[in-house]
Write a structure and sequence with these properties.
10-stranded antiparallel β-barrel; elongated
Length: 348
């Protein structure tokens, strides 16, 4: 049996230099992290929910956006001998963005917007609740959910690891690319509560709940600048053109749950749908402290802009007289969701 001499032209080439065992990274392949969020959002111009009375007038944005907490989770894994490719899963959400505002008059003089001529609750006309009321409350409850699955390409290595070879110092600047699928939900709920001042019992609630469900492919990048030995500045911009499945439900009912009805007998509870194209752009900026090669702490700020959407403020009716008066969806508005985050990442 003949075995060629590996040092001759007929021999084997051996392990390629670029993939030599001592040059391959020995970094952990799995990574996961969690952060706390504190975020708010911008609101559109308010729509009046009552006629001026007693020197006050409520609008939909009297129910201002607050700064509630939320959660950010991510997990992923690097693949290949040089660990230049990874898949990551991201979820973050913020819940209960909103507040309430109340107006009262004495004697009762509040006329709600909208009015509901011909609409009744049992044997009581809706006007008994909506005219000459003693008080009105407008409240908001919004939420945001975000789900992403991204592929990451890191041609220049991973920024969280420091070089152990003095002859090959760590790169101060690192750029990675990403592409993936994103689902983004913005739900916007407004509720008007009228407190009658006369003969009508109980309260009457008008609810407008608008839900935007954006989904589509996104592209982005991850930029890191190591300006101190264990401290990095990081920026993650992303952008997508999305399909947006919008729903809106407008309902008029008592606080006890009795549904108002139109003169035709149809309930005053209308669900509408609309499909449009929307856009979303986001950027996270922050500082990361690489405590060890396996643990990092981070703090930063997130800004998400969403365009060509529908919001509950824009669906507020001016009159409720028939099913057609509260059907349909008006899109074309935009909002910015923004706030801070702080958390950690572990690698194993």
């Amino acid at each position: 049996m003949y075995i060629a001499d590996p040092l001759t032209a007929e021999g084997f080439a051996g392990i390629p230099v670029g993939d030599a065992a001592d040059m391959l990274p020995l970094w952990p392949r799995w990574f996961a992290g969690a952060s706390g969020l504190v975020m708010t959002r911008t609101l559109p111009a308010g729509t009046a929910t009552m006629l001026p009375a007693g020197g006050v007038q409520l609008t939909t944005n009297s129910a201002a956006a607050t700064w509630p907490g939320g959660l950010d989770l991510h997990v992923g894994r690097w693949f290949g001998p040089r660990q230049q490719h990874a898949v990551e899963f991201i979820y973050w959400g913020v819940y209960g963005i909103g507040s309430a505002a109340t107006a009262t008059t004495s004697p009762p003089t509040i006329d709600a917007i909208p009015q509901a001529p011909g609409v009744s609750i049992g044997s009581t006309p809706a006007s008994a609740y909506l005219t000459n009321a003693a008080a009105q409350t407008i409240s908001r409850s919004d939420l945001v959910n975000d789900v992403e699955i991204n592929w990451i390409y890191a041609p220049g290595g991973r920024p969280e690891f420091l070089s152990q070879d003095p002859s090959l110092p760590s790169r101060p600047i690192n750029l990675m690319w990403l592409a993936g699928f994103r689902f983004f939900q913005l739900e916007d709920v407004l509720t008007q509560t009228s407190f009658p001042g006369g003969g009508a019992p109980g309260t009457l609630d008008l609810g407008v709940a608008t839900n935007n469900n954006l989904y589509g492919a996104q592209i982005g990048a991850k930029f890191d600048w190591r300006f101190l030995s264990h401290l990095r500045f990081s920026a993650v911009p992303k952008f997508m053109i999305a399909g947006n499945s919008i729903t809106n439900t407008t309902s008029l009912a008592t606080g006890a749950g009795t549904q108002a009805v139109f003169p035709s007998g149809d309930p005053a509870n209308i669900h509408s749908t609309l499909g449009v194209f929307s856009w979303l752009g986001s950027v996270d900026t922050g500082l990361a402290w690489d405590v060890t090669e396996r643990w990092s702490l981070s703090v930063g700020y997130r800004v998400v802009g969403v365009g060509n959407i529908a919001q509950a403020d824009g669906q507020w009716p001016t009159m409720i007289s028939s099913p057609a008066s509260i059907s349909g969806i008006d899109a074309g508005s935009s909002t910015i969701i923004h706030g801070g985050f702080a958390g950690f990442e572990g690698r194993y």
